[in-house]
Amino acid sequence: MTTLAHLRRTALALPGTAQRGSRPGPVEFTVHDRWFASAGENGHLLLHLPGPEADELLAAHPTGGRLTRGAAPVGVRVPLGDLDGQQLNHWVRRAWLARAPKRLAARVAAADSAVPGAVGDLPKAIGRPATRALTGAGITTLDQVAELTEAELLAMHGVGPKAVRILGETLGATGRAFNG
């Protein structure tokens, strides 16, 4: 069973995402002011999904239902507790990709195939999750890394203390350091 906290972590880990609303009322997640996911007091997750993806989610979760605006389908409603963590992550990401600006969505999709050591001059030793997180944020060079603080790097989903240490050592070897 997933929770609102899990939804919040998943949605806010996606670039350009903002949260509207707070407990105990409805919480809505947007990307560049376009709604893609929300949850309310009734325990339902609402996702803005295109038709084929909505059909796929509803086939797997018959407790869900269609969301419509007038007569036009705009997404799905499914009890939050009916999704496990991996399913929640997948469907929230799919909704985000459907609503994000094309450039941003393309950058994030490209990050999925980012290979450590093959992106700009980022060190291979930072690993796949950190490489993907940085690439997804549009950071592909050590010069861009040097513009960030350690706290900003650690706030990125996928960038942990080990990756920050390796990036700091690599910057230090070239006479640079993190910002701040």
Automatic annotation (TrEMBL):
Domain of life: Bacteria
Protein name: Helix-hairpin-helix domain-containing protein
Species of provenance: Plantactinospora endophytica
Organism lineage string: Bacteria, Bacillati, Actinomycetota, Actinomycetes, Micromonosporales
